[in-house]
């Protein structure tokens, strides 16, 4: 799904009484006029082995934070989101998991993930080997390599974040929760290397 005037892949299935999962795997959605991949769902969302690069808008926008009892989490595996406006933007009320993600050279932030509105204390987990480098072309903007906001625990491992506005920004804006960062390299940021909010416990 490359070179389209609008989105490369556009999926909506939020108006349903059933939690219908959405899976996109082994796919490319690049050089599109808006988003590479756009998914809004009440079911689980999974991206696996996807490339969404060089899009005018967001590389991949995934949202499972709709009202109702069918809410499911979001998982992204072994995928690349380079050279977009924002690389990967995920919103959910349940668990968010990223494994081995690349998001480099985006105009704004590399990866943004938010499940902080959940009452379920759902975690965010980043594992594998991930690269979020050289995101943000405006020094005054302080774009993030990796921005995570959660109501539950945040665990980050295996991340390289270099030459971003802020390398790694993690926060639990509404409820104090634990943050664990290990086996990661964060350097040469325009501002903070690693920044947390007010109530996190590292």
Top keywords for this entry?
202 residues, mainly beta, eight-stranded parallel sheet, 44% strand
Write up what this structure looks like.
There is one protein chain. This protein has 202 residues and is mainly β. It has no helices and 18 strands. It has an eight-stranded parallel β-sheet, with no helix packed on it. It is globular and about 45 Å long. The termini are far apart. The mean pLDDT is 91.
Distance between the ends: 41 Å
**What does the radius of gyration come to?**
16 Å
Largest sheet: 8 strands, parallel
What would you call the quaternary organization? single chain
What share of residues is helical? under 10%
The percent range for strand residues is 35-45%
Order of helices and strands: EEEEEEEEEEEEEEEEEE
Average residue pLDDT: 91
Walk across the major sheet and give the strand order. Answer: 1-3-5-7-9-12-15-18
In DSSP terms (H or I, runs of 4 or more residues), the helix count works out at: 0
Annotation, overall tally of beta strands: 18
Which structural category fits the helices and strands? mainly beta
Low-confidence stretches: none
- Anisotropy-based shape: globular
Structure summarized in a few sentences:
With 202 residues, the chain is mainly β. The protein contains no helices and 18 strands.
């Amino acid at each position: 799904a490359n070179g389209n005037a609008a989105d490369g892949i556009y999926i909506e299935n939020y108006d349903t009484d059933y939690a219908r999962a959405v899976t996109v795997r082994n796919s490319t959605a690049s050089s599109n006029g808006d988003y590479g991949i756009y998914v809004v769902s009440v079911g689980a969302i999974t991206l696996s082995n996807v490339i969404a690069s060089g899009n005018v808008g967001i590389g991949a926008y995934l949202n499972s934070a709709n009202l109702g009892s069918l809410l499911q989490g979001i998982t992204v595996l072994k995928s690349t989101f380079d050279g977009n406006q924002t690389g990967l933007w995920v919103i959910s009320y349940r668990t968010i998991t990223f494994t081995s993600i690349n998001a480099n050279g985006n105009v704004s932030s590399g990866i943004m993930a938010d499940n902080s509105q959940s009452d379920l204390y759902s975690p965010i987990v980043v594992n594998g080997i991930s690269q979020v480098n050289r995101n943000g072309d405006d020094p005054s903007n302080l774009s993030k390599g990796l921005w995570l906001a959660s109501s539950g625990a945040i665990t980050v491992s295996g991340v390289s974040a270099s030459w971003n506005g802020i390398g790694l920004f993690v926060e639990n804006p509404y409820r104090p929760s634990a943050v664990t960062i290990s086996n990661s390299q964060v350097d040469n940021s325009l501002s903070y290397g690693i920044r947390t909010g007010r109530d996190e416990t590292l």
